[in-house]
Amino acid sequence: xxxxxxxxxxxxxxxxxxxxxxxxxxxxIVRTVRSCICGSDLHPYHSAPxxxxxxxxxxxxxxxxxxxxxxxxxxxxxxxxVVPFAFQDNTCVFCRExxxxxxxxxxxxxxAETGGLQADLARVPLADGSLVKVPDVDPATADEGxxxxxxxxxxxxxxxxxxxxxxxxxxxxxxxxxxxxxxGLSAVLAAKxxxxxxxxxxxxxxxxxxxxxxxxxxxxxxxxxxxxxxEVLDLTNGEGSHIVLEAVGHMPAYxxxxxxxxxxxxxxxxxxxxxxxAPIGFGSLFGKNARLAGGPAPVRAYLEAAIPQVLSGQINPxxxxxxxxxxxxxxxxxxxxxxxxxxxxxxxx
Amino acid sequence: xxxxxxxxxxxxxxxxxxxxxxxxxxxxIVRTVRSCICGSDLHPYHSAPxxxxxxxxxxxxxxxxxxxxxxxxxxxxxxxxVVPFAFQDNTCVFCRExxxxxxxxxxxxxxAETGGLQADLARVPLADGSLVKVPDVDPATADEGxxxxxxxxxxxxxxxxxxxxxxxxxxxxxxxxxxxxxxGLSAVLAAKxxxxxxxxxxxxxxxxxxxxxxxxxxxxxxxxxxxxxxEVLDLTNGEGSHIVLEAVGHMPAYxxxxxxxxxxxxxxxxxxxxxxxAPIGFGSLFGKNARLAGGPAPVRAYLEAAIPQVLSGQINPxxxxxxxxxxxxxxxxxxxxxxxxxxxxxxxx
Lengths: 349, 349
Description:
Radius of gyration of chain A: 20 Å
Number of strands of chain A: 19
CATH class of the largest domain in chain A: Alpha Beta
CATH topology of the largest domain in chain A: Quinone Oxidoreductase, Chain A, domain 1
Shape of chain A: globular
Number of domains of chain A: 2
Low-confidence stretches of chain A: none
Largest sheet of chain A: 7 strands, mixed
Largest interface: A-B, 38 and 38 residues
Oligomer: homodimer
Structural class of chain A: alpha/beta
CATH superfamily of the largest domain in chain A: Medium-chain alcohol dehydrogenases, catalytic domain
Strand content of chain A: 25-35%
Order of helices and strands of chain A: EEEHEEEEHEEHEHHEHEHEHEHEEEHEHE
CATH architecture of the largest domain in chain A: Alpha-Beta Complex
Helix content of chain A: 25-40%
């Protein structure tokens, strides 16, 4: 099969690799319908050290099941499935509490052992817990827009949803979303779904913020830093935002977040932090009782509810895809996302 | 009147000062029934720079109203009141949201302008918003234990309560309290009131942890650091604590907190952080979706509910006081709390 590997910053290659095989009897082998490139893939694209063995890339996928291990009970060959970006048993204590990304037996794609999902085929561990079937859709004849929206349920839309959920977005609240990437725009759409009264989108790429407005943003703030904070405070009568959804992961975005959040409000982060230490003392969070939430989205927890929303057309999160490449052109897809000529790139087999 | 002033680390003096007077017509002048020394007073006691003008000390008080300004409507001379450790109008947008310590017109005691509450008399700004009357109690004849418990409602018990409230303590939850000072023990009592199933108290002073057990702690862990974290994980089947109430404010306590908290759990801080930057990235909070909450307690938000609990004997938080000094002996009270021979020191006029 063909699969994408990263050999270091800026160096993504599509190579022929051995087809994956069942390792544990709880595995499934799936064949890609659509995969894609994630904003978080750009972090190693900027900074990964050079290695002789490429790191398998990709963690977002919709696929058709080819083969299952002898212990797989609920998934069968031919099923059209969404593959969440982390795998999990969906039965452990943390999964039962909705924290599937902390599953006691789960893990992440992208190692030599687990492989990546920017590939023709993939091995999915813990198939019963990880895969969710899409009912009554034939991927061979399905509408491209529908496939795009289903693909967002493997990560990007439900990561935005997780931000809004952990931020406790509800009717009447003012929500500020920091970041106009695909996760930020997904967070706008999710906040709208959860009934936010006002959604301020902080971003400076008009094509993207226009999609944000289509998704439900009521205000756009292009300024950043202290100027951006001041603009959001102006928009909120000097009070600040009840909820701030931080969809970037860099320190300046976090600094904006605690500048904007209202006393007693919540900052919910889903941009993977590119820092470990940050201000949380009296001058940032503590003094105003600001709360901090977020982390890797347990998309598995939200999938059963989201699939019907996509199938019914209630939400159309697939609009975040603005380019499609064949798997052989994945390196060009990374370049397009890195130089921001593409918002999010879909990959076809 | 007599009042306590700090002239630098370790240097507390009781001096004769001018009686306070009404400055704004929303002020009240109150006469001390009981005041006390706070664990947070020990931070400047350790590190305050030397100054020629002493800083007025104290922010916890029950008192009788002597005089009110012409615009005070609900409080009158002779009322026996609890004085919250911050003053507020109780009408602004943040007060209405229960975030009284962020009141648009509120503030803190301890400046030359506002004075301190370790004194015979005090000026309370925004008296209608700040003072809460204790009904049907004559402080001249009231039981000492009752006065002690009412005094805790000006700060220490309701700060512990705030920790538990922001930590979303509820029946069925495992709560770990870090710190066996008066706030930590108050947090134990509050967690018990909110129905916590299990309350693990981390502290190494047996006299204090014994009171913690009386307040509802089910387990005591004396170890600190990595060893303490390991013990709490052992006690929780390796899963961690749903809620961690951090009642210290120093970095090692915060580091324990994120080591102990369960995926998706909440760390609620009420120890005033003696740091600004701290770990919040993938390796501490983000990776396991741990949440962070807490800040200066809006005790005014909780006072109306807490006073009847004290009057009825449902809670007896005044047990945290283990020494009483007359105001002239306040310096000895600081020394006793600093060398840990006293848990919390009450001050009589």
